[in-house]
Write a structure and sequence with these properties.
The chain is mainly α and 161 residues long. The protein has 9 helices and no strands. The chain is elongated.
Length: 161
């Protein structure tokens, strides 16, 4: 849900007009629109490169995952892991576009810890995977754009811990 939608829905729920502070929030959101689109464009256009680099780095940190008996030892498990990297990157872009972490929460974070626990996927490894995604993605962005994107990666990392 975008900042605009949130402001409208909250004001409507309370049967009032948006406050001046809420209108300023919308103004700030609109002023960063071009930057958010630019960031998402870079991440989207480089998804394959980002995921590949993040995967390589994760295997360096946790070689036991791809060793015999590891969570990503087989081709199928490895492909699922890589698929999840792309899925999380896409989820993060939704948050960046919306200017809010709520889409990340609503679409992909609620229940994620329980799911990975049920699948015996180490949450520490998932947090490390998102850290690797973050590093691979942010290096492609100018500093100001990286600062905008960073909190969305951090939000997903925190959800894994």
């Amino acid at each position: 849900m975008s900042v605009i939608t949130q402001v409208i829905l909250q004001a409507d729920d309370e049967l009032r007009y948006p406050t001046l502070d809420e209108l300023q929030t919308i103004k700030d959101y609109l002023q960063t629109g071009a930057q958010r689109v630019r960031v998402v464009s870079v991440l989207t256009e480089n998804e394959e490169k980002i995921v590949k680099k993040a995967t390589e780095e994760l295997w360096k940190i946790h070689p036991e995952y791809i060793a015999p008996g590891g969570n990503a030892a087989g081709a199928r498990q490895r492909a699922q892991c890589i698929r999840d990297f792309g899925w999380y990157l896409r989820l993060i872009t939704y948050g960046i576009l919306a200017g809010d972490k709520k889409p990340i929460e609503d679409i992909g974070i609620i229940g994620v810890r329980e799911m990975y626990n049920n699948l015996n996927v180490p949450l520490v490894g998932m947090a490390d995977a998102i850290r690797c995604l973050k590093a691979a993605a942010l290096v492609l962005l100018p500093a100001e754009d990286a600062l905008l994107a960073e909190p969305y990666f951090d939000y997903v990392i925190q959800a894994m811990l």
